[in-house]
From TrEMBL:
Organism: Gossypium raimondii (Peruvian cotton)
UniProt entry tagged with the keyword Repeat: yes
PROSITE patterns (UniProt xref): PPR
Renumbered ranges of PPR repeats: 126-160, 161-191, 197-231, 232-267, 268-302, 338-372, 408-442
Family: Belongs to the PPR family. P subfamily.
Protein name: Pentacotripeptide-repeat region of PRORP domain-containing protein
Signal sequence range: none
PANTHER family on file: BNAA05G30910D PROTEIN (PTHR47874:SF7), EXPRESSED PROTEIN (PTHR47874)
Keyword annotations of the record: Repeat
GO molecular function terms listed in the Swiss-Prot or TrEMBL record: mRNA binding
Annotated Gene3D superfamilies: Tetratricopeptide repeat domain
UniProt cross-references to Pfam families, sorted A to Z: PPR, PPR_2
Amino acid sequence: MASSMSLSFSSSLLSSALLRPEPMPKSKPHPPNSFIVPSAVAGAVSDKKRHWKEGEYPGLSHHSIPGSSKKTPLKNLKKKLDRKNAAKAWVSTVTETLSDCILKKQWLQALQVFEMLREQPFYQPKEGTYMKLLVLLGKSGQPHRARQLFDEMVEEGCEPTPELYTALLAAYCRNNLIDDAFSTLNQMKTLPRCQPDVFTYSTLIKACVDASRFDLVESLYEEMDERLITPNTVTQNIVLSGYGKAGKFDQMEKVLSGMLESSACKPDVWTMNTILSVFGNKGQIDMMERWYEKFRNFGIEPETRSFNILIGAYGKKRMYDKMSSVMEYMRKLQFPWTTSTYNNVIEAFADVGDVKHMEYTFDQMRAEGMKADTKTFCCLINGYANAGLFHKVISTAQLAAKFEIPENTSFYNAVIFACAKAEDLMEMERVFNRMKDKQCPPNELTFSIMVDAYRKEGMNDKIYYLEQLQQELLNNGCLPSQ
């Protein structure tokens, strides 16, 4: 290929006026297809030779004479273009495969495809690709692989950004590795172009809130103030949720009062949803309804998620009349019923083993063309388990596979719970092994369900094995919370 391009280049040189052959004396004829290069020009060509890399200098041959060989360059050029197009098509196909793996949260397959792409000299990974992989690894309980990928990215010359560092920090936060997250924050602070921003601090604050490390939350607030970084509404909503879940209602109201007085981070509908969720999940219906009215008086209008929170809270307390009233109110205001709406209703009936109404709601969901998700099937499986209908658990799991429902940790936990409920410990172990084979990380709930099942049968050796495995995953930072 290099020779074809060289011939083409030298031909273009020879066609210029400077490299035209000198008139040949009649007394000394030259053989066909040969010519004489003037000494001055030859010297010039020789001087320029050093600018070419080895193998690139076009040189001079009989092919260099204009008109002596026209087809070879075109033919070779076409081959080169064909190879380029084939390479581009290959990259496009494999890139689509990578995107599909990321979309399906298949982290191991995504890394394998990405490694295949990186080995190609014509593929240059972009910042967005690294970002998606870091986020995927964090969500999949693989923070150490996220760190490895980040280090490889830097070694290959891709300059890190605050966003990429924040994605790495988030991977640690998602897996309760707060010390590593703080270490990443300190590293960012030493790099002029990677200074932490409000999103970095919000991510770390959320991890501290989830771990009930409210002392660290206060220190992070002070650090933000020193760096003139103003907490935004998202940051405050995170802290509100944390205080609420921890039952620290005084602190929660203090933060909320500060938001009402602030001009930079006014409460929004997410604030409303956060407060409604806090009281709704705790079953404090009166407080939930009271705050709902307060937010309406503040001028904050509810959205579909707000109504879904109300429906879920009423469902858990078996207040079916109020649950139905909210659904009718949504129809009246032309708010669409979503998958979450149906999931909340299905869950309400599943919790009490009311299979009749659970199945009716699921059938209505499908009749309206609403797509079921993983939570839908988790609720159905739990409902059948609570009703003692284990054969329907199996058929529901098969239906989930038919619909290509992602089998995440929650899904496996639902099936493991059903097996434990049916006292089928052998099947429970098979499901747990399949979970590990699918690279789906167990969480605290997984171990809790299985340990309780073994304890009822006095299987202490099994309990010991699970405790050792749980500790190992915890030490490696691969044990996500519930």
